[in-house]
Amino acid sequence: MGVNGNGQYLATKQVVVEDEENDFLADFDLEKFLWVVRRSIIWVVLIFAVCIFAVFIALRYVKKIYQSDAIIQLEAKGTAPTLGLGIFKDESSINDYLVGETEFIMSNKIKDEVINMLDLYISYWIQGRFIDDEKFNSSPFKVVNYEVTNYDFFDNKKIYLQMLDSAHFALSYELDDAIISKTYRFGEKIKDENFNCTIHLINLDIQNKYFFIFQSHGYLQSYIGQNLSVFPMNVKARTIGIVFKDANKYKATAIVNAINEVYLKKSIDNKNLTNKQQIQYLEEQLDTLTLRLEEYDAKIDAYKRGKGEANNPLNLEPTLAEILNGIKTLHSEKMKLNDEIKKYKDVVNFLSSDSSYQLINTVAMGITDGRINQKINQLEEAQKELKRISESYREPSFALQQKQKKLEEIREELLELISFNKFRLYDKVYQIDVEIRKLENKIPNGASDMDLELRRLNRYYASYENNYNILLSRIVELGIAEAGTVASFQVLSKASIPQVPIYPVRNTFYLYGFIAALGLSVAVIIVRYLLLNKITNLKEVEKFTKAPILGMVPYYSKFKMENSQLVVNINPKSSMSEAMRSIRTNLDFMTQKQHKRIISVTSTISGEGKTFVAVNLAGIIALSQTKVIILDLDLRKPKIHLAFGAENFNGISNILIGKATIEECIKKSEIENLHYITAGPHPPNPSELIMSNEFKDLIKELHQTYDLIICDTPPVGIVTDGLLVMKMADVPIYVLRSAYSKKIFISNLNKLISANNFSKLSVVLNGVGKAGTYGYGYGYGYGYGYGYGYGGYGSGYGYYDDTPAPTLLGKIKNIFSKQKAEKDA
């Protein structure tokens, strides 16, 4: 790395990375990759099946989430423009206004009203095998008059209920790792050490098990806040979206509609708050003035009675008597009107406190407007009908919603009618006061002292009455303003019951499953490709070594062999025989000027098929009228005697130590020109024996009789004995086995060539065509300019082929043919 260590190091590292990338691209074998893909199809199918099944299970058992939403549009109604400029100056002010309203809708004030309106303090559930389902407004039982004394029973504590019959049920819960279970009657007051309540039966359901949960106010506020979304949708259109998500679609819809109703009520109440406070104050002052007027009215009557007959209005002048009688009559009518106004106030107070409608009807007796009593009766009937429907339906129904809406409409109509009648009565009282003042002004100036005292009392009375009329007029004005106030928004899209969940989305889940399956499949294929470190085809051998390819040997599948055997003589037209002929031809090209040859056959490790190749190559050469002898030089682990089914008493080791002659050890095979010498007893020094002069003399003597000597040597990756023979051989053959030999064995082959100068070392790929290999063909041309071998197997000659195995139909035909031939004979 030198002086400029950092820069030099980085440059070197970059070059190394680029080389690695180039090596990877150069090492990538498309044919091999496609073969891995084909071999992985069953895994790919399995992965896709598992992923699709997993998606199916997820869609079936994952908790579904529904979304209900509504859209409201804010308007300028109910608010007067300032200086004629309107409410909003620009779009920014509109946006600020919308943001403020969204914050108000999401405030705890709205949440509290919604919680109380829908009575969310108890949630009812039906226990499922995998997923529990909330029964919002559809539970077959109702918990009332409850009180939780143990705060651990809030929010997460499940209290299970199992109906036993129409009168009894079992209640159970877990406490301190113990199950507490008791039996109660429906309608009976339950007094538990942790909670008190009463449970009423709505519908009998013995098959299912239910549970309910007490929920704290804080939990419900958090629950609504987490699932509620309020946001400005269109600033210019002044629209706000209200969205609520929940696993129960009926609950989500009910909460959104409740938010709309509460927001409507709060919006109007906030706008009328000032008017209500003023009206309340004025009514209090009006009550005080009413008392003062009644007081002075009583004084006037008492004064008249105290003066006796002389002061009887009948003795007065006719004009004065008529005036006083008229004033008295008007005062009587005014008292009746004030009494009716008071009854209206009592009815409104009872309605505000949610009192019994029957009690309200009693209070309303004496009100002259029969429509008031009619509306109260309608309210009572609507309340009874709503209760009946809520107890009959297990799920929130359209009928229930309509009844609730109808009840609220009747109540609003009643309040509007009362408000209208109150202001009408106030107006009548005002008109009566005007008439009284007119009559008082008609009293003659020349009246007696009694008339003057009466006039003084009437003056005080008139003063109070004037103030009374002023207050009454102001109340009428404020009432008219309040009656004209409307909500500053309208609901553009009311919340409806969603039919399709927003989670899980079926198509999205299947898309995720497909992507996951595709990713896993690609990963499996890539991993299998990277882990495939064995030689699978001839191209890999060609790619990593410059050693000439002598040929390929197909995998022999006619029968299972425990040990290598001579098979080329069984069926001369077989693919095995043809592959050996191709290797024989290539050997002839390589050694065409040599008459006496030595061929060594070795491999990297045991099991690659060197003995099988040696035996069958010798057999196919011997069939061409060439005298061949096989020497088993694998003195540590001999196999030749097993290939020919012979004994291994005398062999190479006996000859080299002088305990036996060559003639005594040579054995004949089934092929006329093929002989072999087994390894003999295992010697303590195999390498020394092969290096000895006796071995060289053995080779010279065998050359006098045989044209070709094939030496089956030990694997060179294990011992060095094979190298000694390879140096003596005219053609060293290195056997690799498809789908068995590792790619690193080719590196070992290259080292042998470079270190020992084996220029004629050739490669034979064995076991081609077995399951786990690809890209093969039999017969491979020798590429040194000596010519080429035979064409590839499968499309070569056209008349050399394996005898096809008889089919079942063929076997049946053969049986009948033999029977027919026997009959003909």
Automatic annotation (TrEMBL):
Phosphoprotein listed as a keyword: no
Gene Ontology CC: plasma membrane
Lipid bilayer topology: Multi-pass membrane protein
Catalytic reaction equation(s): L-tyrosyl-[protein] + ATP = O-phospho-L-tyrosyl-[protein] + ADP + H(+)
EC number from the UniProt entry: 2.7.10.2
Coiled-coil annotated residue ranges, if any: 279-420
Domain Polysaccharide chain length determinant N-terminal: 27-116
Principal EC category: transferase
Key words of the record: ATP-binding, Cell inner membrane, Cell membrane, Coiled coil, Kinase, Membrane, Nucleotide-binding, Transferase, Transmembrane, Transmembrane helix, Tyrosine-protein kinase
Subcellular location: Cell inner membrane
InterPro entries xrefs: AAA_dom, Bact_polysacc_biosynth/exp, LPS_length_determ_N, P-loop_NTPase, Wzc-like_C
Transmembrane segments: 41-62, 509-531
Record-annotated AAA domain positions: 597-724
GO-annotated molecular function: ATP binding; identical protein binding; non-membrane spanning protein tyrosine kinase activity
PANTHER family named in the record: FERRIC ENTEROBACTIN TRANSPORT PROTEIN FEPE, TYROSINE-PROTEIN KINASE
Similarity field: Belongs to the CpsD/CapB family.
Protein name: non-specific protein-tyrosine kinase
Species this protein is from: Thermoflexibacter ruber
